[in-house]
Amino acid sequence: MARRRPQHLAVSSRTGVVLRRIIMVAIAVVLLVGGGYVVAKRDDKAAVSRSVPTSTTTAPSTTASTQPVASVESTTVPEATFTISAVGDTMLGKSGSLPPNPATYFSAVDAEIRGDAQIVFANLEGTFSDVSGSKCGDSTSGNCFAFQVPPSFSQHFAGAGFTVLNTANNHSHDFGSAGLDQTVTAIRSAGMVETGLPGQATVVQAGAIRVGLVGFAPYRETASMHDLPAARALIGKAREQSDVVVVYMHAGAEGTDAQHVTGESELYLGEDRGNAQQFAHMAIDEGAGLVLGSGPHVLRGVEFYKGRLIAYSLGNFAGYTNFNTSSGVLTNSAILHVTLNRRGEFQAGRLVPVTLTAKNQPLPGGGSVALVERLSNEDFGPAAAHFTSDGTISAP
Predict the structure, then answer these.
(1) Which of 352, 353, 348, 359 is nearest to 393 (CA)?
(2) Angle at 163 between CA 189 and CA 172, to 5 degrees
(3) How many CB atoms lie within 10 A of CB 299?
(4) SS (H, E, C) 63-129
(5) Residue range 243-284, pLDDT digits in tens
(6) Which of 42, 89, 201, 311 has the fewest Cβ atoms within 10 Å of its own Cβ atom?
(7) Largest CA distance in the chain
(8) CA-CA distance, 144 to 158, in Å (whole number)?
(9) Paired strand residues for 121
């Protein structure tokens, strides 16, 4: 009779088989899961590498896989910038003295006026109007000037490339409120916009960047640079509505002896024309990325304050017998190109020299760059803008 295996041994044997199967399954699961983890880990690293703004990134290989990982190339998106082109006091004559060729008056320099700028700015030194009754009345004084050209002349500004005209100056009300109203209508009808009215912040789109423009002058009929709390509030309003703020100021005394920025309030014919440097610094302190100026009818120096550019006066640009541009520094003019980023930081700049004829027509060339470089160094020392011979501007 066969001997029976002890019951406990039979049980133990079956248990051993089960345990061995469990162990084999567990090992297989670990291997499968482990391989999957390594692949996932590698893919995650590759995914991270695609989001890193570097030129070429290769994900590291792992010991669990011999498959090569493709190089992933990513390009850094260029930072958004915009360029503004700006000129100073601009008009195309006055009643009784209009150019015979207004449509081509800017043609010698219109390529430089436009450049590659998204915003093309000028101070409109007068009115687009045909109403009667100037501020001079019957005055025979040689110190009263009223500038007026037909409303249709706004088309010639637009044709030359201008997109924004400033009305904050001492000639915006040469023909009263009616003349100003006609001027604003003419500007807008030509496809341009204006700035400079009390409380006015003009916002334009320059590519991907919203630019707020505000113009100031030392007059209550304009956005006044004498009312500093209101000026601060207006700059703040523009800052809230835009990415970058550009401030214009019509400030300073006039004439050949007014080329220098004094840092003090400047008088002309008994009129307080403001402290240009104090106002410009305030504007930047309040968030402006760029300050432009004109009004003295001559060029002035360029300063960098807190990394922001201030062009204190771009002088005259066109007038057709309105201005004295007969000789010397009175013939010097310029077109300023400035490129800023979304934070209002200076990226590049160039001062294009312009010469004015005896009838105030702008022509290319002249010694404006050397003049502005000298004035900048004399007035601002270590804060002066640097210029190369071709007018390229760099920060100190």
Answers:
(1) 348
(2) 70
(3) 28
(4) CCCCCCCCCEECCCCCCCEEEEEEEEEECCCECCECCCCHHHCCCCCHHHHHCCCCEEEEEECCEEC
(5) 999 999 999 999 999 999 999 999 999 999 999 999 999 999
(6) 42
(7) 151
(8) 29
(9) 86, 164
Please check whether residue 168 is in contact with residue 248, taking contact to mean a CB–CB distance below 8 angstroms: yes
Structure tokens at 253: 């005394």
- Per-residue pLDDT reduced to its tens digit, 289-329: 999 999 999 999 999 999 999 999 999 999 999 999 988 99
Tokens of 268: 């002309």
Q: How far apart are CA 373 and CA 395, in angstroms?
A: 12
Token pair, residue 317, equals 């640009």
Strands 308-311 and 316-318: unpaired
Going from the C-alpha of 165 to that of each of 66, 123, 194, 262, 274, the distances in angstroms are: 67, 6, 5, 27, 21
Give the C-alpha separation, 186 to 154, whole Å. Answer: 6
The number of beta carbons lying within 10 Å of the beta carbon of residue 66 is: 7
What does the alpha-carbon distance between residue 218 and residue 298 come to, in Å, rounded to a whole number?
18
Helix (H) / strand (E) containing 238? helix 228-241
Q: Which amino acid is at 184?
A: V
Residue with tokens 């100021």: 249
- The residue whose two tokens read 């956005």 is 223
Q: Do β-strands 316-318 and 81-90 pair in parallel, antiparallel, or remain unpaired?
A: parallel
What percentage of residues in the chain have a pLDDT greater than 90? 78
Is residue 249 within 8 Å of 293, Cβ to Cβ? yes
> What is this structure's pTM?
0.81
Q: Which residues of 29-52 are buried (b: 16+ CB within 10 A; e: fewer)?
A: eeeeeeeeeeeeebeeebeebeee
Residues in the chain: 396
237: Cβ contacts below 8 Å, ≥ 6 apart: 201
**Side-by-side strand order, sheet with 202-206:** 202-206, 209-216, 244-250, 290-294, 308-311, 302-305
pLDDT at 139: 67
Tokens of residue 390, six digits: 């071709």
Instruction: Tokens 């989001």: give the residue.
Output: 51
Helix axis angle, 228-241 to 276-285, nearest 10°: 40
Residue with tokens 């604003």: 184
Nearest CA to 89 out of 365, 268, 298 is that of: 298
- Tell me, rounded to whole angstroms, the distance of Cα 376 from its chain centroid: 21
